[in-house]
Amino acid sequence: MNIYSAISSNKNKTWLIMFLFVVFITTLVYVFSKAMGFSLGLAGIALVIAGITSIGSYYYSDKLVLATTGAKEIKKSDYPKYYRTVENMCIAAGLSMPKVYIVNDPSPNAFATGRDPKHAVVCATTGLLAMMDDAELEGVIAHELSHIKNYDIRLMGVVVVLVGFIAIISDLFIRATFYSNNDDNKASSIFLILAIVFAILSPIAATLIQLAVSRKREYLADASGALLTRYPEGLASALEKLAHDKTPPRVASNATAHLYIENPFDNKKVKNFFTGLFNTHPPLEERIKILRQM
């Protein structure tokens, strides 16, 4: 996959996922409505809400991601080296200057978000800035700018919002079943069983949608970043430091894990079965090996 086919693929995947999300949510609410004995008009309302959420995720996913992570916008005077590195890499990549943010988190990591190269954000944690030397920081920033240039940011941002919405809908139904006084009958019982199965499986389905954002995008961003800096060892060394670091993240969540340059829960001192169930990133060791073979 080359850069141009990746950009086209990411644009198409974004619209496809948004469409499938509307269909999925409407079906989910229809089954829940039948199970709870509510009017089927609720499914129509859900269709409207899902459509609004889908469109909203396109325009506001970056703001939601930044709010979730507690990221703060900085000026050049706040972190001169970090800001200048973003400026220099943007000039090399031929990109507009994105907004620059920082997250107060000792766990080293970085991500990019936004809907297109003209509405983009680059964000790094304080832990990453403290750990990386100049060449390594350039490698990380080049990787994130590659996500911006390849339109990965649009796809990843939309997925964050839609996955979270599906989890909320499922949770609301599970809670509602404890307070329902609906009379039992054969039809409603069948729908109730079906709805419970949907409520349990839909978050897993949402995670699989998350994984529809192919791991190949990380390999491509690594290659594009190395091409940008002309120094693959800088990014390889940065990834090596990330692989050895064991600092648990403060602000990352499963919903936003796929945004980061490294899965914030991978190889960390975080005891959570579900974080390892579906890995959103290829192994760091493999990425480092590929970079050092360039």
General description of the model:
This protein has 294 residues and is an alpha+beta fold. It has 2 domains: 3-66 and 154-211; 70-151 and 215-292, Metalloproteases ("zincins"), catalytic domain (Zincin-like). Helix content is 65%, strand content 7%. The protein contains 11 helices and 4 strands. Strand 3 (110-116) and strand 4 form a beta hairpin. It is elongated, with a radius of gyration of 21 Å.
CATH first level of the largest domain: Alpha Beta
> What's the name of the CATH homologous superfamily of the largest domain?
Metalloproteases ("zincins"), catalytic domain
CATH architecture label of the largest domain: 2-Layer Sandwich
Largest sheet: 4 strands, mixed
Q: Could you tell me the CATH topology label of the largest domain.
A: Zincin-like
Percent of residues in β-strands: 5-15%
Helix/strand order, N-terminal first: HHEHEEEHHHHHHHH
Terminal-residue CA separation: 17 Å
**Uncertain parts:** 269-277
Instruction: Find the count of extended strands (DSSP E, 2+ residues).
Output: 4
Overall number of domains: 2
Radius of gyration: 21 Å
From the spread of the alpha carbons, the general shape counts as elongated
What is the helix tally? 11
Mean pLDDT across the residues is: 80
Instruction: Assign a percent range to the helix content.
Output: 55-70%
Q: Strand arrangement, largest sheet? A: 1-2-4-3
Q: What structural class do helix, strand and pairing data support? A: alpha+beta
